[in-house]
Specification:
Layout lengths: L1 E4 L8 H13 L4 E6 L4 H9 L7 E4 L3 H4 L5 E6 L5 H9 L3 E6 L3 H17 L4 E5 L9 H11 L13 H9 L12 H17 L1
Parallel strand pairs: 1-4, 1-5, 2-3, 2-4, 5-6
């Protein structure tokens, strides 16, 4: 299974989502994370954790060809604002395109652009993952979910809350379930587990 995480908007949790979806899939079968971002965010995350950090291998896009045959699942983390040609290639060559979306107006503009591109390509293998969702009583996440559903756009039932545990995981170079000094770490992992189950279950 090839899962690609992409969006025309940066700063929406692409790398965090790629890391944790890969961590979930690794528990099911050998999983490779391909770091296609020019900033190399996933590679830096892996380097900070050292040998015992991430439970899966991280390689660059250029190295992917040498490794892809050895893994059952491939998760591709992409750069923000890809070219139209790159975006088409990403959309055409995966089993599922995961589009992280933050429920705020600026990020929603990028989401609208991403979804418009997918419509123009006739792509139906995509699903929006709400990320950095603020806690109640704010209703930003619910409003975006209802807007997407009203337009018939597939959305993950699971959503990713705005939690400091993810930043700590990136700092330590580990998946969030390995963060021991944050009381929300278990919850932060549970929501990605739920998203992973949705991916595997279709």
């Amino acid at each position: 299974m090839i899962i690609t995480i992409t969006s025309y908007k940066g700063g929406v949790g692409k790398t965090t989502s790629a890391i944790h979806i890969a961590a979930y899939l690794q528990r099911l079968a050998p999983t490779l994370l391909v770091d296609g971002d020019a900033i190399r965010s996933a590679s830096k995350w892996a380097q900070r954790g050292g040998e015992g950090g991430l439970p899966f291998k991280v390689v660059s896009h250029a190295q992917m060809v040498s490794h892809i045959r050895d893994y059952q699942h491939i998760v591709i983390d992409t750069e923000g604002n890809p070219s139209d040609d790159d975006f088409k290639d990403l959309a055409d060559n995966c089993d599922l395109l995961v589009i992280p979306a933050v429920p705020e107006s600026v990020a929603t503009d990028g989401l609208t652009h991403t979804l418009a591109k997918l419509r123009s390509l006739g792509n139906t293998r995509h699903k929006v993952l709400l990320t950095m969702v603020p806690p109640k009583p704010r209703t930003d996440g619910l409003q975006l979910r209802e807007m997407l559903q009203a337009e018939g756009i597939p959305v993950f039932a699971s959503e990713i809350p705005r939690l400091a545990a993810y930043e700590k995981a990136a700092t330590y170079g580990v998946p969030v379930y390995s963060v021991k000094d944050d009381r929300n770490a278990a919850r932060a992992w549970e929501v990605y587990e739920a998203a992973g189950r949705e991916i595997v279950g279709g």
